[in-house]
Amino acid sequence: MDMYNTLAVVPQTNNPEELRKLYHAVQTQRANDAERLRIAIRDREFLKATIAELDAEVADLKEKVGTQDAAQADAVVLRLSRKRGAAKGGLFSKLTGAAMLHFARHFARTERFAEAEALYAAGAVFKPRPFLNKQVGNMLYRQGLYVSALEVLNDVKEHYQGDAEVTFLINASEAALRN
């Protein structure tokens, strides 16, 4: 059996009115499927363009810095481009953001802070939330990048008035810079 026969709905009636309703329902479903496909293609093209831009920035940065550690260079590029703004929404972008958050948490638990920072920052592009920027600041602090951590955490502080973790990270970063 081919794919079309397995998906076909065989009407159990010869009533023209019921057949028209079924035809209308199938046409509506086709239109909805076409719209979802159009949005997925648009999201994919946007992501491909964004990835190409970031790849060019990484190549340029690696050339300027001469670093051997690709993960650190990638994290630096994301830090530099973090203020680009949110990506357009869509199913693909929501799934991508959720996957990035999952892997960022995994990397943070396994103390791979540069990778976790990069994924939290990239996740914030897909779904901007103060929590993600708070985690970026946390990961920067854990890497010993105190100036960058302070920059991010001071931006986040307004969303987390009185939050003990944010206050601790800011104070610890300032103390580390004084020493």
Features:
179 residues; mainly alpha; 8 helices; disordered N terminus
Report on the structure:
- There is one protein chain.
- The protein has 179 residues and is mainly alpha-helical.
- The protein is 77% helix and 0% strand.
- The chain has 8 helices and no strands.
- The chain has helices spanning 3-7, 16-65, 70-80, 91-109, 113-126, 130-142, 146-156, 164-178.
- Helix 3 (70-80) runs parallel beside helix 5.
- It is elongated and about 85 Å long.
- The N and C termini lie far apart (73 Å).
- Mean pLDDT is 77; it is low at 1-7 and 80-84.
Largest sheet: none
Measured distance between first and last alpha carbons: 73 Å
Gross morphology is elongated
Task: Specify the helix fraction band.
Answer: over 70%
Helix-strand pattern, N to C?
HHHHHHHH
Low-confidence stretches: 1-7, 80-84
Q: Per DSSP, what share of the residues sits in E-state strands of 2 or more residues? A: under 5%
Strand tally, please? 0
Q: Average pLDDT value? A: 77
**Which class of secondary structure composition applies to the elements?**
mainly alpha
Radius of gyration computed on alpha carbons: 24 Å
How would you summarize the topology of this molecule?
Blueprint: H1 3-7, H2 16-65, H3 70-80, H4 91-109, H5 113-126, H6 130-142, H7 146-156, H8 164-178
Helix pairs in contact: 2-3, 3-5, 4-5, 5-6, 6-7, 6-8, 7-8
